[in-house]
Amino acid sequence: MKKVIIFLLLITCAQLFAESGIELPAKRSPLKAGVLSALIPGGGQFYNHSYLKGGTVLIIEGLLLGYAIKNHQQADKYYKDWQDTESPIAYANYKDYYEKRDNDIWWLGITIFLSTMDAVTDAYLYDFDYQKSKVHLKFKDTAILLEYKF
Questions:
Q1: Which one of 74, 102, 119, 141 is least enclosed by Cβ atoms within 10 Å?
Q2: Considering the entire predicted model, what is its pTM?
Q3: Is the pLDDT of residue 133 over 60?
Q4: Closest residue by Cα to residue 56 from 68, 69, 44, 67
Q5: Residue 142 in 3-state DSSP?
Q6: Contacts of 56 (CB under 8 A, 6+ apart)
Q7: Which residues, in sequence order, are bridge partners of residue 136?
Q8: How many CA atoms lie within 13 A of 8 on its CB side?
């Protein structure tokens, strides 16, 4: 009997919210958004329904990872050439690609950090418009009134 009463009460509340036009936004977990963004390129942005940002982060992180792998392979190739021939040109090319690879890895790390912070911030502010609609600032004669709807 209790389950039936609770079920009817929930349906009544849902109908009241539906009729009043109040749409409660889904909550987003900042921790989940941060972990997804750190592990999967653009994962936190996709979780927060920021699809354009998620796609941009996916492309940028993918390009940086691809460049790092390509520069690592080139550095490895020139290192082997240098070991075989002891050519100063091969060593200079090895050092050049090695530095490029390191730079790519640093930029990738910075991009992952910033995209993770962006995903966490978006998750915290996911229901900002809904919360903002509950606060009203009114000016009446010589008074300023702040109204908050629960």
A1: 141
A2: 0.68
A3: yes
A4: 44
A5: coil
A6: 42
A7: 147
A8: 5
